Automatic annotation (TrEMBL):
PANTHER family membership: UBIQUITIN C-TERMINAL HYDROLASE 12, UBIQUITIN CARBOXYL-TERMINAL HYDROLASE
USP domain: residues covered: 290-614
Extent of Pro residues compositional bias: 44-58, 91-103
SUPFAM superfamilies: Cysteine proteinases, TRAF domain-like
Organism: Apostasia shenzhenica
PROSITE patterns on file: MATH, USP_1, USP_2, USP_3
GO biological process: jasmonic acid mediated signaling pathway; maintenance of root meristem identity; protein deubiquitination; proteolysis; regulation of protein stability; regulation of root development
Claim: Transcription is one of the keywords in the record: no
Name the UniProt record assigns to this protein: ubiquitinyl hydrolase 1
């Protein structure tokens, strides 16, 4: 079995695992996603393919046993793991690599911990390539390596089943070799490496080692059998090795040389590595650098930002961009970038990028959308260049990254030359067809000949043969090379990733071959010798992947890998050779057979290279320290750091403290009617105290006395309770015995959920002189009620106070007091309502003033809302004449932000609406706001809360009942709606079908696109009739037909009776054309065939695949008609000049394979006897020639990701 494990925890999207050859083995390049976790049959290899003792890549070896293998993992199966290339970079001491004797090997076997084997057939097994060294524990640092030789005398007379060697020490650990001289229940020598002191080691011990075991051939050293592997040793797997190391028949054959004078020589070479636990890995401590946090899919941005940060001149320029202490980082790109760079320079832990992306104007959706590094680099450079204008660092971007080249066209036969100078910030280099950077530069400056049909029109000289090319005027100090790993595949109509091997040098000499890349105007005194600074890697496929960067910040031999939050030391081979891409070949699994080596594609490869010119490196790799950073920025960021440390300390000590939130009458008066309308208070906006749990509550009251100036004896605290109807009210006062407890105990009593917060209401009595008074006695007969006053004229609700009332008393008894609290005359008539609940709907019931409070079921903490008694006049005069109608309004009101559909990022206007509004109510309000007479012309579209974009489909006319339905997206509620104004009412539009039809004129070389709008039950005949009234026909009685065209092929002729409702014009082109007269009167032997333009795909020559282009058409061919005769008619139909037409080739194509025709060939004989020739595998007459029409432009990211939109920085 082969086990795989995903390697990229922050990878934005994993590749399709549809082919083992493409994906399943790709992790053998340790920078790709999938991790090969098993080592199959570690067999010897021939000299040409034998890897070094500790190879940089794990090798996958397949078993080719001729009989059932007796390989079995005993008491445990090694846990899957991945082998990181960093684990294998340290070079071991020199040793001779041996080949096996030229004999047939019986079995290729697996790496296993030893155990006593059971008899009988055993399952086939795959050796585990340990250790688990992906993200969590990657071996680092140079190993401690040692070779131990064990000479075993009287080998054939050994009677013991197993034999241990002497103990030897490597890396501070004790080891020994374990052998089974007669085999571990197999007819092979069994040999393992064993942890000698495993029985006495502490619980949870583990150690990682790469090792080889060998049986020395004492006649011919080159036939020594040596096998190597690696393993994470632990208590369950304290030994590891080879159950079937070599056949016993070979070992005991004295002619083979492994047993001389009954002596066997065994060798072990062990390299011990320290395993890093990445859960506790400290990038700053290990490397001196920190990483960047991934927001979801921002690894592409992180790798670019690290690269730019490690260009000190660029960092210094960013620091010197003017910012002020009043700037907000999330709204200022310069300040956000300064802040980010400062934290990268001085922070001890990974840095967040949210402030920077907010300054770009990005929302959460942008952070979860993977973009292209090159695209972001260009957009960011342009934005910074613009923001640097008029400052002391104006031009810094150009000084670093700007170069110039010259586009020229030079006539061959006349003295005429045209040239144009252009600047560039980066160069895009071809990867396909180029072996390295130099080959790409050669291709970049390759001279193109303009001749034949492609002659150049020179002023005064007319059409001339010419040479066209590009030469470089100068190169920038920092050269950014973007490798074109993504290209558009015309055959598959999609973007593909080019994983070809592509080499790049550590030093790049662009003056090579006497400066062949330079223009005559170039300054030859400038030495264009560059040193590689960073390699940005893309690991994955065209539909997503993971970005990271290898950087050497000081251009020394020290390379570092910046992979989001983690920074690790790497060696040069990892940064260069392993990022070339291409294929890797696994060693042959059985040299005795001529089996084909297995190759796999490496999906991890360099995508962007940054070189720094040698002559400029001292200026660019400059010193950047605090004096380059504005004082206000240093103060701000140091303050941020102190606050962060304080929060960290608080978090660490949180278990020792309780947060007590104290609500008072002042809080209720301040919040009710402004911030809240229901219940009494928002506890997140009241005074909170952080109190040690062991503090007695009585001492906490002293703290409250100091804070609020309220005597301890005048304080009474009430516990809050959440009721079954989801309201939250004061429930009961604290008892004296509770106040005698500690704060921590009180919290546990009051809060069953063990929340770290305690919420209290502080009851205080204030006298007329504003001094606190002694509290009234609280008895069971007293009820604490809270009162809100409603003013229907002002549509205002406010808190007016609280009262203790007798449970057997009646509201009539307190009316005078309530009028006094409201400022009404003592005898004013008022109505009382109880606020019962507000979710999911409002319940506010009228209170009978003649009933007792107990009869009305009122209790402690209840809320009474009151108002002047409504009159018939007030009910007509006010929108919400009473408390229930006002609370209903408040509960359902919704501020909606309306955006024009064509400007989905910008709010046009806001309206206060009710969630209960019907569809008609909403469109009527919108129409009135934008002064539109007919609300039916408004079409609304809901908001997608995840993409932050309009939903693909608009809301149908009366397709929802209420505004609340328009705002809901899955389980989230939005406050955004998009609108558009239609030219006809929406109900009428919904009954119509709109089709875009391209009309090809019969005699003119023009195409006109018409929009046909007809009722959905219309037919194709109706479309044709409508089209006739809109286009110019060759004659009044011309007949039209409607075709379905897709990628330059005709797939369907629509019958006139077909309904248009299901016709799709989004993906297929609908083409209308006149039916030629010759097609109307087909003879019995005539045939209607398809004719398509095509050219060979230059990338698919071997498979003879073709690429169609241009407008396809029908042609009538007759029985016995030759190609020469048909060519005359085609030329006339297409109006192609003789000179150009003479270069065309004609072919019969079936299933995409061209069979070229001669003029004398009878064309009709090639086609099958059928009329319905359209379809996916149609046969057609192909016209092969170059496509001279303007090419469709495919940008680097076009069609690359269906979910991707262009990078934009909005601020």
């Amino acid at each position: 079995m082969i086990a795989f494990q995903d390697d990229t925890a922050n990878s934005e999207m994993l590749p399709d695992r549809n082919a083992i050859s493409q994906a399943n083995f790709s992790r053998i390049d340790s920078s790709s996603w999938l991790s090969v976790q098993s080592l199959i049959a570690a067999s010897p290899s021939p000299p040409s393919s034998r890897p070094p003792l500790f190879p940089p890549l794990p090798h996958l070896r397949l078993s080719h046993s001729r009989r059932p293998p007796s390989i079995y993992t005993p008491h445990s199966t090694p846990s899957p793991g991945t082998i990181d290339a960093a684990a294998s970079q340290a070079a071991p001491p020199p040793m001779t690599m041996m080949t096996p004797p030229p004999l047939d090997q019986e079995d290729e076997e697996m790496l296993v911990p030893h155990s006593e084997f059971t008899e009988g057939p055993q399952q086939m097994e795959v050796a585990q390539a340990e250790p688990p060294t992906t993200a969590e524990n990657q071996p680092t640092e140079d190993p401690s390596t040692s070779r131990f030789t064990w000479t075993i005398e009287n080998f054939s007379r050994l009677n013991t089943k197993k034999l241990y060697s002497e103990i030897f020490v490597v890396g501070g650990y004790k080891w020994r070799i374990l052998i089974f001289p007669k085999g571990n229940n197999v007819d092979h020598l069994s040999m393992y490496l064993d942890v000698a002191d495993s029985a006495t080691l502490p619980y949870g011990w583990s150690r990682y080692a790469q090792f080889s075991l060998a049986v020395v051939n004492q006649l011919h050293n080159k036939y020594t059998i040596r096998k190597d592997t690696q393993h994470q040793f632990n208590a369950r797997e304290s030994d590891w090795g080879f159950t079937s190391f070599m056949p016993l028949s070979e070992l005991y054959d004295p002619g083979r040389g492994y047993l001389l004078s009954d002596t066997c020589i065994v060798e072990a070479e062990v390299a011990v590595r320290r395993v890093v636990d990445y859960w506790n890995y400290d990038s700053k401590k290990e490397t001196g650098f920190v990483g960047l946090k991934n927001q979801g899919a921002t690894c592409y941005m992180n790798s670019l930002l690290q690269t730019l940060y490690h260009i000190p001149y660029f960092r210094k320029a960013v620091y010197h961009m003017p910012t002020t202490e009043n700037d907000i980082p999330s709204a200022s790109i310069p300040l956000a970038l300064q802040s980010l760079f400062y934290k990268l320079q001085y922070s001890d832990s990974s840095v967040a990028t949210k402030e920077l992306t907010k300054s770009f104007g990005w929302d959460t959706y942008d952070s979860f959308m993977q973009h292209d590094v090159q695209e972001l680099n260009r957009v960011l450079s342009e934005k910074l260049e613009d923001k640097m204008k008029g400052t002391v660092v104006e031009g810094a971007i150009q000084q670093l990254f700007e170069g110039h080249h010259m586009n020229y066209i030079e006539c061959i036969n006349v003295d005429y030359k045209s040239s144009r100078k252009e600047s560039y910030y980066d160069l895009q280099l071809d990867v396909k067809g180029c072996k390295d950077v130099y080959a790409s530069f050669d291709k970049y400056v390759e001279v193109e000949r303009l001749d034949g049909d492609n002659k150049y029109h020179a002023e005064q000289y007319g059409l001339q043969d010419a040479k066209k090319g590009v030469l470089f005027i100068d190169f920038p100090p920092v050269l950014q090379l973007h490798l074109k790993r993504f290209e558009y595949d015309f055959m598959r109509d999609t973007m593909v990733k080019i994983n070809d091997r592509y080499e790049f040098p550590l030093q790049l000499d662009l003056d090579r071959d006497n400066g062949k890349y330079l223009s005559p105007d170039a300054d030859r005194s400038v030495r264009n010798l560059y040193t590689l600074h960073s390699v940005l890697v893309h690991s994955g496929g065209v539909h997503g992947g993971h970005y990271y960067a290898f950087i050497r910040p000081t251009l020394s031999d020290l390379w570092y890998k910046f992979d989001d939050e983690r920074v690790t030391k790497e060696d040069m081979k990892r940064a260069l050779e392993e990022q070339y891409g291409g294929e890797e070949e696994l060693p042959q699994t059985n040299p005795g057979f001529n089996n084909t080596p297995f190759k796999f594609t490496k999906y991890s490869n360099a995508y962007m290279l940054v070189y720094i010119r040698e002559n400029d490196k001292d200026k660019i790799i400059c010193n950047v320290d605090e004096k380059d950073i504005a004082e206000h920025l240093r103060i701000r960021l140091k303050k941020e750091q102190e606050e962060k440390e304080h929060r960290k300390k608080e978090k660490a000590e949180a278990h020792l403290y309780t947060i007590i939130k104290v609500a008072r009458d002042d809080d209720l008066a301040q919040q009710i009617g402004k911030e809240i309308y229901f219940d009494l208070v928002d506890h997140d906006k009241v005074r909170s105290f952080r109190i040690q749990k062991q503090m007695p509550f009585i001492l906490f009251k002293d703290e409250v006395a100091k804070e609020f100036g309220i005597r301890v004896q005048h304080q009474r605290f009430w516990l809050w309770a959440k009721r079954q109807n989801h309201t939250y009210r004061p429930n009961r006062p604290l008892l004296p015995q509770e106040e005698a407890q500690s704060v921590g105990q009180l919290r546990e009593v009051s809060n069953k959920a063990h929340n770290a917060e305690l919420k209290l209401f502080l009851e205080v009595e204030i006298g007329p002189d504003l001094h606190t008074l002694p509290l009234p006695e609280k008895t069971k007969e007293n009820i604490l009620l809270f009162f809100k006053l409603y003013d229907p004229e002002k549509e205002e609700l406010r808190y007016v106070g609280r009262l203790f009332v007798k449970s057997l008393g009646k509201p009539l008894e307190i009316l005078t007091k309530l009028n006094q609290m409201a400022g009404f005359p003592p005898s004013a008539e008022i109505e009382l309502y109880e606020e019962i609940k507000f979710e999911p709907s409002v319940m506010c019931e009228h209170i009978d003033k003649k009933l007792t409070f107990r009869s009305s079921q009122l209790e402690d903490g209840d809320i009474i809302c009151y108002q002047k008694a409504p009159t018939p006049e007030s009910e007509e005069q006010f929108r919400y004449p009473d408390v229930p109608s006002f609370l209903e309004y408040v509960h359902n009101r919704q501020i909606v932000h309306f955006r024009a559909l064509e400007r989905p990022k910008e709010d046009d206007f806001c309206l206060e609406l009710s969630k209960l509004y019907t569809y008609d109510d909403v469109v009527e309000k919108v129409a009135r706001h934008i002064s539109l007479d007919d609300p039916l012309k408004i079409r609304l579209t809901s908001h997608n809360c995840y993409t932050q974009q309009p939903k693909p489909q608009p809301i149908k006319y009366r397709g929802v009942d209420h505004l609340s339905d328009m705002l809901v997206h899955y389980n989230q509620t939005s406050d955004i709606l998009y609108y558009e104004v239609l030219d006809i009412p929406l109900p009428e539009l919904q009954g119509l079908k709109t089709l875009k039809v391209a009309f090809n004129h019969a005699t003119k070389n023009e195409v006109v696109v018409q929009s046909i709008r007809l009722p959905k039950n219309s037919t194709v005949a109706d479309v044709i009739n409508d089209l006739k009234s809109k286009v110019e026909l060759s004659h009044p009685n011309a007949e039209l037909r409607l075709l379905e065209v897709f990628y330059h092929k005709i797939y369907k002729i629509f019958p006139p009776s077909e309904k248009i409702e299901n016709i799709n014009d989004q993906y297929w082109t609908l083409r209308a054309e006149e039916i030629p007269e010759e097609e109307k009167n087909l003879g019995s032997q005539d045939r209607l065939i398809h004719v398509y333009h095509f050219m060979k795909d230059p990338n698919q020559n071997q498979t003879q695949q073709v690429q169609n282009f241009g407008e396809p058409f029908f042609l009538v061919i007759r029985e016995g008609e030759t190609l020469a005769e048909i060519k005359v008619r085609i030329q006339k139909k297409l109006q192609v000049p003789d000179e150009e037409f003479s270069k065309w080739k004609f072919a019969f194509l079936s299933l995409g394979r061209p069979e070229y025709l001669q003029d004398a060939d009878i064309v009709a004989s090639r086609f099958q006897q059928r009329r319905d020739v359209y379809g996916a595998w149609e046969q057609y007459l192909g016209l092969e020639h170059s496509d001279t029409a303007p090419k469709r432009s495919f940008a680097a990211n076009q069609n690359r990701h269906t979910f991707e939109k262009p990078v934009r920085i909005y601020n």
